Amino acid sequence: MKPIITAFSFFVFFLCMGISHDIYPQEDAFIFGDPLPDAPALSFRGDHHVGVRSLDLVHENQPDIQNFEANKEPNYDRPLAAEVWYPATLKGNTSQVEYKDYFGAPNDEKRPLTPFTFSGRAVRDADPERSKGPYPLVIVSHGYLGSRYLMTYLTENLASKGYVVVAIHHTESTHEAPGKFASTLYHRSKDQLFVLEELSRLGGSGADSFLEGLVDAENTALVGYSMGGYGVLNAGGAGYAPGFVSAFGQMTAGSQKLSERSLRHPSFQASVDPRIKAIVAFAPWGMARGAWDDEGLQNLEIPTLFIAGEQDDISGYEKGVKAIYESAKNAERYMLTYLNARHNVAPNPPLSPDLNQDDYMHYAEPVWDERRINNINQHFLTAFLGLKLKGITTHAAFLDLPTDSLEETWEGFIPRTSIGLEWRQDKPEM
Questions:
Q1: Any idea what the Cα angle at residue 207 is, between residues 204 and 209, rounded to 5°?
Q2: Which pTM does this prediction carry?
């Protein structure tokens, strides 16, 4: 049996604590992503300062799913806002960034559209730290409805560890401008692949962008939550099932556009980008609704980390996320399960207990402290992405765990704190 916590774990734990105290003084008010006293070893921020900038991208000549009618399938130039976090150098302006987001939706009497702001630990428009780049690319995709600011605890944390992290603001899938669900079904994976192509271009030589020379797109990870998870699995090779394509047609006056993202379409296999080296799917939606069959999931061959709530009542667990994990037999895969958690295993915690109950429950977990979930997520994504994108072989120890977190203290966890969790891991069967 392994010792309760190894000397290596203590070394990493205290090293990370030292870095965090130096760059992010703990006397400051708590900000999303800050480590709690029981945070696991790899959840602490890295040794880079973090800058953040906004991008306005346009995916030209795309199907305008919102306005499809019988025998009428118009195209449009699809705007995609994005937020980019990156390793930065600070030259005086060290004020913390303020993010603006929304609760609710327009014309929703129960949850009216309400703006709110919150602080982060990045610095707006800071100069990039080019001397240690280029950095692997991480693309983050939110749920429906959501925003690019849904997981700042994670985007800032990863950027501090030497990644360029871009979070997509999916058009027609946000609180302030929601659209038809069919738009999300079609565009999710295509948005993610387009952003990969754009960040590769903007990071290339002669791009005349702040990202020039900063992005190592050859080592890319896709991270998605809920509908974002639905998208990243498809972008990574899990082609949609024929019955799901037919259901999409019923939603869109008979359109078969979603067939482009099915395993049997001649263009689908070529769309799986070899630059994608890792996938993280938080509570991916779709399996319980027939999005995939075994054949489609067995086409997923990219190493994948699944993160799920055992009581997920949106995506499902036994017939949802766990069923995806079990069918994706040709991928190296891992699954972290929060026992007694529902669907909200990815977002920033709720801002206040005074929120409208529906807004509060859009982010909260009934049993778990969301800040604790955030720290655990930071730890496992640091281990997984560090191994798969950076080749940090020592991180493998944090992924080689017993299934039951009570069997023995998990690597990197403080004694008595690896509780309420399960872990699975499987190698490809090819």
A1: 105
A2: 0.93
